[in-house]
Structures are given as structure tokens and as C-alpha cells.
Amino acid sequence: MYRYKNEPVDVVIVGAGLAGLSAAVKVKEHGFSFKVLEASDRAGGKVYTEFSEDGKRFYEKGAQFVNKDMTEIISLIEGAGMELKDTRLADESIVINEKNKKAIKFSITENQELLNDYELEEHSRLSTVLSESIEGKWEQKMLKSYIAAETTVSSDYINAKAARKMISRITTRESELKYQASGPLNNVITHLTGQLGDAIHYHEPVISIDKIEETYQIKTEHGNTFEGRALILAIPPTVANRIDMPESLQNHFREALDSFLDGSVIKLTFLYDEDFWRHHKVGGKEKKVFGVIYVGNEGVNVMDSSTGEDENRLTMFIGGDKAKDLVKVPPQVRENFALDRLIDVFGEEAEGYQDIEESIWVDSPYTGGGYGAMVHTEGNEDADDFLGVPFEHAVFASTELAPQFPHFMEGAIRSGKQSAERLIEAMEK
Q1: Has 373 been labeled as part of a binding site?
Q2: 9-47+184-260+373-428 domain in CATH 3.40.50.720?
Q3: Is 148 annotated as a binding residue?
Q4: Which residues bind substrate (predicted)?
């Protein structure tokens, strides 16, 4: 493994996902020297595009959807030479339950109002709040399944106060699924890394951080040491929690880092010749089905991920405990589980898929097991705010800590920029 010459810089950034890359661009704009340490062989984190063997199509294995309120990611999409394409989300499209095919109407805003109306106690369990505040067992199970799929954490483990706070930061007037980029999101990552030159060092998993006088020494798994007078940890809090830190940082940040629980998610995309779900019988009438929530399998949902006149696709998200269970079985068993769920709703037509792409994030050591960690029931509901404030010229950045749109690409970008700006302000004092 190559040994880097130890040239101290102003800022060392750990993590080359959207948060880390956005932070690095901001640091560069202010004229500070910097290095970015990435544990894996690629930048992007949870933004990861895979191409088919013939190169004719691509699949987003992680983050995928945007809307026009997400101005930061849209700017990057356009900067990478792409535009937005509509997801096939027609006004008359419906989301249904898999058993009774009942149309489901709810939104993030409605969930926020529900939690706002309920008097939450400290360390309230989200599942308990839902059981006590929602009438009807079916409605309770439906919402719990939706939450497990969306947050990739079971509501049994989520701190209700922290969840209310997180939802309040998703300030949007339209569906978060309304658009997708016209090309692979890898282009966004290439657009960002192209601005950073040779400052990114790959294959450098950070294992420990020391501080000697006013300088941080960041040691990696391969024996390299990087020095900087300031530090941005642009990785999920659950991942950062596994790094040995100086006693002062441990004492200051430990409670907040300990407050997060990692998610678990498996994503499968099916490609079809025909979009049969848009001509599906619901209650004796033909309906356009955009999505399905599986109440009987908590944490499973399906959505139409097709764009415009492009190929017809259904994407299934399996989150929470169900993902943890299914990661232990062979790939064919997972595929059969997913296919059986589609057949339950749409019948034998679902069997005729042309291609399938699976991505597993469960127990990922560098990016976390889900699309975002959640504050657990015993955690500090304000942990996200705490980690985003610099202490001894060290600060955290990740989508979980975002001032707006947490758990989305937009949130990662905003968190990276905000943390970098706060750190720069602290360094210039």
C-alpha cells in the first residue's frame, strides 16, 4: 500500500459521499488546503449507479429521487449536464395495500401533524405513539410498515420526539419522488470530484484520530497518517462512532454519537416490457397504481420508478427488521420473496420481468446499513444539532444532521455545506 508523505493541511475531511464532497468544495472556495479520506474505492457513498452488462441501461443502487424544492441536488444534476425527468406519478395514481387493495392516502405532512398533536414524553417509542394515537389496527400497521420502509428502521426503535423533529425539516410542497435525473447520478459525483483535483485519497478507512497540540493526526487502516488543524467527519454517526477519538472529542460528542441506530435496507428493481400496474383492477375499476405498502410484511413497499417513456420499472424497498432477516438468505430466496409480493398484488404478469437489480446496504461498514440512521428511543433527540456544531475545530456532517431534507441527497449536501461554513467561521476567529 502506498505511503503518503505527511503534508499537514488546514482541513481533513473523512468521507467522500455527498456531504464530504460538498464540504470539500466549500472549504476549497474559502482558500483552505484540504484532503478527503475515503474508505472505499469510489466516491459517492449512498449515491451509486450500476450499469447493465450490455451497458444499455443503468440502475441507481442507492439514492434516486428528487423534487424541485431540493435546490442543491438539482443544481448539481444540471451542473453535471443532466436534467430532470418525471417519475410516472400521475395525479390519479394511487398507493394501495397489498391485501384488500384499499387506496392509501397519507403524506409526510400528515405524519408531522399527527406527532405535533400528540403530547410526547422523553424517550417515547414511535410505535407506541402510533398505536395510541391512530384508530384502527390496520391503519396502525400500515403506517408502521411505511415508516420501516422509508426510514429503514422499525418504529419500535425510533425516538418519537426525534422523528417529529426530523419530519419537520422535510419542507416540501410536492412529492419527494416526483423527479429523477435524466442520466446516472454517478455523473453528479464525477462533477464534484472533478472540482477537487487529487485531494481525494481512496482506500483509506480511518481507524483512529489523535490530537497533538493543535493538530489532528488521522490514522488509517493501511498505516498512513494525515494531519490537519481542523476536521470534518462527513460519515454517518453510526460509522463515526467506531473510530477511536481523542478524549476531549469523546467526552464532548459521545452521547450524541451513541444516540443513533443504523438502518437496514435492500433495494430491488424489476424491469418489465409492459407497465401492467398502471392498468390494474382496484374495486372493480381500472386504476393506475403508483405504489404498494405491504402491511403483512412490515418495512416492504413498492413504487413505480419508471421515467417518461423510458423502460417500465418497479422498485421494491425492504427496510428494517425484514431486511436484516433477508440478508441472511441466498439471493434467489430474496428474489423469490420479492417476486411473491408482486404476484400477491398484480398476479402472474409480475413474473415476466426482463431484468432485476439488487442492492444490499445492510451492515455496510462505511455508509451505514440504511439510507439514514435514526435516533433510538434512549437517544438524545437533539443529537443531530449537537454534532453539527464545531468543537475544537472538529465537526460532523451527514444527511441525518441536515438542517433541511434529512435522509435525502439534498440533506447530505446541505449538511456538508453548513458544517464546512461553521468550521471555517470557527477557524477564522
Answers
A1: no
A2: no
A3: no
A4: 317
